[in-house]
Amino acid sequence: MEIKKVTVAGGGVLGAQIAYAAAFHGFDVTIWGRSEGSIERAKPRINKVYETYTKELELAPRYIGAEFPNYPRSFFDDVKDINLEKIEELKKNNEKAYKDLKYTVDLEEAFADCDLVIEAIAEKVDEKRAFYEKIKDILKDDAILASNSSTFMPSMLKDFTGNKERFLHLHFANNIHRQNLAEVMGHDTTSKEVIDTVAQFARDIGMYPAIIKKENPGYILNSILVPLLDAALALYGDDIAEPKDIDMDWKIGSGSPKGPFEMIDIIGITTVINVTSTREDAKDPSSPMGKALKKLKEREAKGLKGIETGEGFYKYK
Amino acid sequence: MEIKKVTVAGGGVLGAQIAYAAAFHGFDVTIWGRSEGSIERAKPRINKVYETYTKELELAPRYIGAEFPNYPRSFFDDVKDINLEKIEELKKNNEKAYKDLKYTVDLEEAFADCDLVIEAIAEKVDEKRAFYEKIKDILKDDAILASNSSTFMPSMLKDFTGNKERFLHLHFANNIHRQNLAEVMGHDTTSKEVIDTVAQFARDIGMYPAIIKKENPGYILNSILVPLLDAALALYGDDIAEPKDIDMDWKIGSGSPKGPFEMIDIIGITTVINVTSTREDAKDPSSPMGKALKKLKEREAKGLKGIETGEGFYKYK
């Protein structure tokens, strides 16, 4: 089946980015909000994405023929594709996307004839379930439903969708025009055609679709990131090395742009404490993770929570 | 104390890189080999490093004022330091280093008046111990001894050095003029002055010294890399996703230049099998790691061992 009309439910930070990326790449996109208030909050977010795209396209000529171009990967497949003509074409897409994007609070208008719903509402399982129950009788029979949920699994939601074979997760990172990753994860009875169609849609909006073949909490990215951070936290807990040296060692040794403690500053120490607290070995105060948890809590109590508070393991102006 | 004369024991790939980096940065450097044959094998390695430096310096003007310059970090502290005058100065250093580097098989000549020994001989504990016993009565009382060992701990060698307070590890990555990491790890009675002196020496040869405050197998880098690879292998063992998707997901999501399976191809599947086989959970064939180990062994049996065999998870021309 072909996707033409897309409705994004929820106009939060990520909902706005997803809706805009789809519109920019030529899809007919509607943002549905549950109230006029939520639509009014979505519009400035869309304005911000539009401004980001405008600025990126103004800067794009500098990447033409550059040796290490740091260009938006969702705009160009390859550095060889960057030329003035292509940039002008994308500028037109950008203006058209901004002009054509639709907003509605009306369920019929939003969902009656869309081919793909991307659900990006609040990360509360009851709200998501209620949403799917509310729209299931409005949708076309062959509509595809994709949730951007970060923490739930498709099997926790599928029974509320009315058409579970056509339900899956499509999970985006932040800042998706550059960090162009879309994790595609079905449950055990999602149809193969639906997975293929959604993977192709992701490609069509400039994303790399990483196919997750079985339900897996944390998708792929967090399944790797969490053990990496845990390993760094164990070194910190055991006082093997200072966070700055751990970060520099990892960055130089692996070529990664961020060290584990820079990542913790981005994630926020409170979230890291919450995740670490669930580990069995963190409950023993003499273990490396137990000692790390204690140190993290001491830093949190001092307000050193990361970028959001202006200081974490590093200072942010 | 001040380091002026440096002897590198062993002229293997890394010994040659370390000796050359020290000579390039103005130290008086001798390479000691156990036989004329080992010296003859060291010389072409030094030639190769000299050629690499020469080529890097030819390319260096392109980094002047560049936005994302991918310059050798051990040559310049910051992109702002890259200018034609500095490049000319480094070219002179390069010629001088190549010309002045000394080679000897004579123990007195190599070790009697050196301030710092960097031991980079074969990774065999008995050979290392015998080496330290052989030189301990030749060295000056205040000479510092640093081992580049990847797998042993300083406490396994210290009692053979004759002066354990002045013994520590200084562990380099490969391709050190770009991957400019030096892990500094003492044992429990290495003197603070020795650690500070060696860290400063590392800085002086363009390295970032990551200080490891307590003995830790795997230093910092491998303590983080191994759990990262294990997490990726568990996803692969459980057939959650294909290696290519795991790699792309991690690269886009984290910004890292290499995915876990690209790294496994670099490390070589046999080494990864050896390391994974020591894990308790890999002994259970129904566990994710057990299943991953089985798959790795099947690939190894087919000769898909990584870059060294031309094909691993990816093909290499």
From TrEMBL, chains A, B:
The 3-hydroxyacyl-CoA dehydrogenase C-terminal domain extends over: 218-316
InterPro entries, per the entry: 3-OHacyl-CoA_DH, 3-OHacyl-CoA_DH_NAD-bd, 3HC_DH_C, 6-PGluconate_DH-like_C_sf, 6PGD_dom2, Mito_3-hydroxyacyl-CoA_DH, NAD(P)-bd_dom_sf
Pathway annotation from the record: Lipid metabolism; fatty acid beta-oxidation; Lipid metabolism; butanoate metabolism
**Keywords of this entry:** Fatty acid metabolism, Lipid metabolism, NAD, Oxidoreductase
Keyword flag NAD: yes
- The UniProt site entry described as Important for catalytic activity is assigned to H171
From the UniProt record, list the reaction(s) this protein catalyses: a (3S)-3-hydroxyacyl-CoA + NAD(+) = a 3-oxoacyl-CoA + NADH + H(+)
Which biological process, per GO, is one annotated for this protein?
Answer: fatty acid beta-oxidation
Show where the 3-hydroxyacyl-CoA dehydrogenase NAD binding domain sits.
5-57, 91-213
Superkingdom assignment:
Bacteria
Please give the Pfam families that the UniProt record associates with this protein. 3HCDH, 3HCDH_N
Q: Name one GO molecular function term.
A: (3S)-3-hydroxyacyl-CoA dehydrogenase (NAD+) activity
Report the PANTHER family cross-referenced here: HYDROXYACYL-COENZYME A DEHYDROGENASE, MITOCHONDRIAL (PTHR43561:SF3), PTHR43561
Designated name of the protein: 3-hydroxyacyl-CoA dehydrogenase NAD-binding
